Amino acid sequence: MKSMGLNSGSSANSEKKIIHYARFGKILNVKKPLVYIQLLFSVVISLILLLNLKEVSHLISYFSIYFLNDARILEETVASFFKLNYIGYSGRFPSLYESVIYIFISLIFILYIPKVNLLSAPIKIYVQFFFLVLLCSSLFFYLVPYKFPYSSNNFSLLYMTIQVGILSFIPVVLGFALSLLNVSTAIFFLNILITFITLIYSFVFGVVRYIALLYLLDKLSYIWMANFFFNLGPLLDMIYISSIYSFYLSILSEKYATKIAYWRWVY
Asked: DSSP secondary structure string, 169-202?
C-alpha cells in the first residue's frame, strides 16, 4: 500500500510539470475598435451590393454583350422580390455522334487518369470528377435528349444569380476573416484594399467566364452545361477567394511574425 502511494504521488508531480498548449502561447494583439470598424464597413458594402443587384447584373451584362454576336440583355424577377439583367444567347443540342464520342473520351480519362504518376491526388480526383459529370451528361443526351429541360438562357440566368450573390457576400466573408488580423492601422487599410482587389478580380473573372461559357454552350453544345456549372462555376470562386486570402495571410505572417508589439502572451 505504501509503495502504491509513493507511485501515485510521483506521477502526480510529473504531471504538474506538463504545460498544455491550450493554456499557454501567444496570440495577435488585435485592436478591437479596428475589428468592429472593419466588420461594420464590410456589412455596409455587402448591403450596398445587395440593394443594387440589378445594377450589378446590368454592368456584367453590359461588358459581356460586346463579345457575343446576336446576344441581348434580358430581365427576370428572381425569388419574387428582386430583378436581374442577364444575357440571352443561343445554344444547341449535341448530335448523337457527339454524344458517343464524349462517352468514349470520358471513359478513357476516368480509367487512365489514376495511372498518371505526374499528377497529385487532388488533381486526379478533380479531373475524374470532371469527366464523370461529362459521362453522365453524354449518356443523358444519348438516351433521352428530348427530356433536357434547360436552355442557354436558363443557364445564363442561373450564372448571373450566383455571380451577383458571390460578389455581394465577398465583403462580409473577407471582412470577418480579415478583421481578426487588425493589429495596426496599416493592416486595417491593407485588409480593405485586399477586399476591393478581390471584388474587382471576381467581377473581371466573372465577366470573362460568363462570355466564355455562353460562347462554348453554342459551339460545343449543351452537353457541357453540367460541367460548366459544377466544375467551372461556384467551385472556382471559392478556390480563388481562399487563394487570395491564404496568399495575403502568408505575406503578413512572414512580415510581422517577429514584431513583438503585435503579439501578447496568454496563459
From this structure: HHHHHHHHHHGGG-SSHHHHHHHHHHHHHHHHHH
3-state helix vs strand vs coil in the chain, percent to 5: 75, 10, 15
pLDDT in tens, 92-135: 999 999 999 999 999 999 999 988 888 888 899 989 999 999 99
Contacts of 211 (CB under 8 A, 6+ apart): 64, 67, 68
Identify the burial level of 50 via C-beta atoms within 10 angstroms of its C-beta, where 0-12 means exposed, 13-18 middle and 19 or more buried: middle
Closest CA to 242 of 183, 182, 201, 193: 201
Cα 153 off chain centre by: 23
- Residues 76, 160 contacting (CB under 8 angstroms): no
- pTM, two decimal places: 0.82
3-state SS, 20-45, equals CHHHCEEEECCCHHHHHHHHHHHHHH
For residue 25, the cross-strand partners are 266
